[in-house]
Design goal:
4 copies of one chain form a homotetramer.
Chain A: E1 2-6, H1 11-20, E2 28-32, H2 41-44, H3 61-67, E3 70-73, H4 80-89, E4 93-96, H5 106-113, H6 120-125, E5 127-128, H7 135-139, E6 143-145, H8 149-163, E7 173-178, H9 193-196, E8 201-203, H10 210-221, E9 229-234, E10 241-248, H11 255-265, E11 272-274, E12 292-299, E13 304-311, H12 315-330
Parallel strand pairs in A: 1-2, 1-3, 3-4, 4-6, 5-6, 7-9, 11-12
Antiparallel strand pairs in A: 7-10, 8-9, 10-13, 12-13
Helix pairs in contact in A: 1-12, 8-10
Catalytic activity (chains A, B, C, D): N-acetyl-L-glutamate 5-semialdehyde + phosphate + NADP(+) = N-acetyl-L-glutamyl 5-phosphate + NADPH + H(+)
GO molecular function, one term (chains A, B, C, D): N-acetyl-gamma-glutamyl-phosphate reductase activity
Pfam families (chains A, B, C, D): Semialdhyde_dh, Semialdhyde_dhC_1
Chain lengths: 345, 345, 345, 345
């Protein structure tokens, strides 16, 4: 099968390529870049070496539609909402790693993103690709909206609690910590090594665009869920997200009950691993892999549940989950091309 | 004035020395170490160079009592509770950077620290050295118990809210992130570079010994305060603590009111700097200095206050605050020897 | 095929497992540990998850000989020289990642390692596994001595120059920079995060045990080679070695000639990639992979050649090259199980 | 005394301010910025807090000449060569941290910097501010050209060997490793955290503009010195330079002789510290301070001397040495305002 990657020279794009190069069902990737067309991919990323035919091409939607069955967008806001409709109309499958199709309500999108997005027609047919919980819809999707990195970590951690209605609906707080690669490859003072190293920063306090994305899914699971508090911190590391999640239990719980619930919820999910009592995952334990590792605690003193959910933001939080969704959409083994162990240390 | 440092070869000790070397009222520091007596300090720490008389001495309480007016303990649990009483009885002033004298209730200490501590007699006379809020008692103290690094960041961030009773008493959550130097200089797998770098870990979930220390002070300010949720994360950096604090407002607040309260609360405190609306401090902005920087947000969607409080764990969280307390105890300018600007970048 | 790993809980061991898990010709790995036998591997390394049968076993050479065709030693000095002879005598193939069998001359070993090693009988039959240059001998080896991390980077960078006798024999200087994982997983002050982070250190000046290993191979290629200067620096990163190599050209050279030589030397080597004129590799460009990337410069002002050679110390510098040697020893495709792309960023 | 800083919002500028704020002889610093005039300095650098009068001003040379006795340039190439002549002509003292006035020969400047610089008139009166070795000239200087960071580390390490003619004149190789802050505060892909972290890069191979600066000084000390090999590596840390220096001894030396020479050479230099036999400095041991620490080795096997010289690139390699030069120019104590101990860890 031929696939195309638009935005191949960003971190999401290069990570898609890392996995797709060894994917058993993908024969060829065409790489597109609006800024670097004409040059060989290895000029930007010498680590990939000499891949045959890896010349970056100018974005040409018509050509893509002729040559490829699936197109991945690993692009900044506003690109996929502009280009994807033509591809959709021509019958191409689209997997969008940007936020353009994630929010069903355009006014919510505009409020949080401060810009316009696609028309309702396309927004409504977009399927939200949180693979573990939306598999049926994903199987039928033509337009797949891949979740944000933070929402992936937060939602996989919250799902069992929210669906089972074990926690107070107005008590959810997510304190998230992310590596720097989540900010993309564009150079800025915020990603300057000397500003990030030996430093922890909070950013976009109460205003991160992933807040409505998380709430939309939580409300789909339990309509009573109230607005959440969600904070994002920049940590001096390249990869990894940890979401530390706090919520008040409706009634007294036991750690055993909680862990049973999580184990059961994810027993068929190859990529979600629940830790033993008293053990919690570190981000490095999923480094470079598609795993989401989860640890759970219950505190009798406060009646609060603490859930710790970690992912590699570029894999399960972006390229890996996108390929997982590709696998589901095509009816392939969900794990195809994704069974790489984390790199440790 | 002559002072002594016990535990001079730990990170707390070497940081005490960095500031005391240039302190206008301190003439000589005697350095004591149980493990390295007889060698010159610069053997362990070449960065200090040739300081005259910096031979590490064997711990001898009698000799100290003869030669020094003030003794600093920068030691592991159990040392100061054993040695300080003799010094106290001989009229020496003691400033203890360990946790031995922080909790007034011995049973609480034993539950969280899993060991015994000093007798009630000494516990009761120990003054808790959160300088900004306990100045009157500190002026009269002979035995000063210097706050823990996390409690310093958390309490300075919480004080105005709790004292003014603006928040629900059962709603406090503190999500804290710390650099590795907080774990001390002892080598262990937990501080191994290859295990810490490119990694975020949560540890001691719901069981950190700083929880009762924070709660003790909060209850002294407002007896209705309920048990808090307090989480600690290890971040791949050497210095710095950020406490991200969440609490539910009792009634609707405005950011303006909140910032006014914080500005007023700390207007006489040289070392606490409150940020402008919409601005939040990063740990690097206090690096190497005795500052605690604070930013505040109020979220109308959730009715929650978010407070971000950052310190250098080895300075305001340890050696710096200890010297600030020394200054207050001796009646000197509170800032003596401490007015070093943060190092940036 | 069944294989065994002795020293499975070190960084070399866990990296062997990462690659062997997906190796097409390896059916089962038995894991041995002298310090942690009886526990499941995932207790030490949660990132690997639930691998069936990954209980760490007590080292039992007889049992290994019965069950396994190949035994890997990823052990500290002195272990393989003690245990390997029995395995060899029983016909088992041994691949040793330690330095025990690398030096042919016992007195040289004793001078640099300050300890004794195996008897001459076994030393002489050991084949040095610098795969790209010793393939014929490796194919016939029963006892394979895997090169050190530094020697791998240095020798692959020097080989074409030395074999073609293009450089003055007394002019070789290798300035090497290594990540911390090269020091192993044992906790020590030298690997403490707070001591390594924001720091560069030189160590073992003129006394590193890899010096005789490099010289032995260089002299095998050109007996006139004189003692080299070789310096090792500890860099605040987990993985990666860069060897910056300096040597005086015997006569004027051109960059074109040099690059032709390198391209030709390695044209059949999948894992050695030579950069274009003016381009030099960074360690991150081989991260997690078995590649050795090389860049070359010639300076007309000084008449010196500069070669920059980078590897991942745990892969091409240890586990990866060991598996590459396994592949050659067994007559399999040299790349089997090793074609993972570097992780970037 | 009033001084001015042009380019106050770069890393050199902010570091000048850190030291000058506490300088006993400096009463007021005026801060100038071409890009951010009109805003308060703390908007760019919240860590400095509320300094009275720290509004960034538009560059106005006439005004500066009226108000200030000394002007520091911490600016990109081309600024000081344009603006300084007016100040010089008006009798203002100028200390230039850029490279504009470092090379006496304009054609050499143009070859290495690929741009034009000041006229011969000003180049010839500029005094090169390697304080330890040029003190007499510095005392009389009106235009002081502050050395580059790499040349400072390299020259302080080489001086005793070159002046005493102990080494072969064509044998000098300097392998330098630098933290990222040396590249300035401008955002670029080369300083992006995700590209720098877990990575070592070599850059400007055989073409760094500091090469002629080092050679010019070496030749002033010994006219027979031949072109040197000088390599620069980017290391994942914020501050610090290590220069590892290799040279062939003319005749057999002893470590004792060498160390005696270094100790004697620097016995009157407060800021150069020579290590004991067998000990070598790490960059962290001078962090945030004006020290240059030096270790020396002699290898009998190769007849080569290895010198390890470390500085904080922003202090002794920039702002600190500039203030040291200010002190000498004004006849003040050379250490005024500079006696801060390194921060460790």
């Amino acid at each position: 099968m031929n696939i195309a990657i638009i935005g191949a020279t960003g971190y999401g794009g290069v990570e898609l390529l890392r996995f797709l190069q060894h994917h058993p069902h993908v024969h060829h990737c065409s790489l597109y870049s609006s800024s670097q067309d004409g040059i060989h991919f290895s000029e930007s990323f010498p680590h990939v070496g000499e891949i045959e035919g890896a010349i970056l091409q100018k974005i040409d939607v018509e050509q893509m539609a002729d040559e490829c069955e699936v197109v991945f967008f690993a692009t900044p806001p506003g690109v996929s909402s502009t280009l994807a409709p033509t591809l959709i109309d021509k019958g191409v499958k689209v997997i969008d790693l940007s936020g353009d199709f994630r929010l069903k309500d355009r006014s919510v999108y505009e409020m949080w993103y401060k810009r316009q997005t696609a028309s309702d027609h396309y927004l409504q047919q977009a399927v939200y690709g949180l693979t573990e919980w939306n598999k049926e819809d994903i199987q039928k999707a033509q337009l797949l909206s891949n979740p944000g990195c933070y929402p992936t970590a937060a939602l996989l951690g919250l799902a069992p609690l929210v669906k089972e209605r074990l926690i107070e609906e107005d008590s959810i707080i997510v304190d998230a910590k992310s590596g720097v690669s989540g900010a993309g490859r564009k150079a800025s003072l915020n990603t300057h090594f000397s500003e990030v190293n030996e430093n922890v920063k909070i950013y976009k306090v109460n205003s991160h665009q992933h807040i409505p994305e998380i709430e939309q899914m939580l409300k789909a699971w339990n309509e009573r869920i109230q607005p959440i508090t969600f904070s994002t911190h920049l940590i001096p590391m390249t990869r990894g997200i940890m979401a530390t999640i706090y919520a008040k239990a409706k009634k007294e719980l036991s750690l055993e009950t909680l862990l049973d619930l999580y184990k059961t919820s994810y027993e068929d999910s190859k990529f979600v691993r629940v830790r033993k009592p008293g053990q919690f995952p570190a981000t490095k334990e999923v480094y470079g892999s598609n795993y989401c590792d989860i640890g759970v605690a219950y505190d009798e003193r406060t009646g609060r549940v603490t859930v710790v959910s970690v992912i590699d933001n570029l894999v399960k939080g972006a390229a890996g989950q996108a390929i997982q969704n590709l696998n589901v959409m095509m009816g392939w083994d969900e794990e195809s091309g994704l069974m790489l162990a984390p790199i440790y240390p």
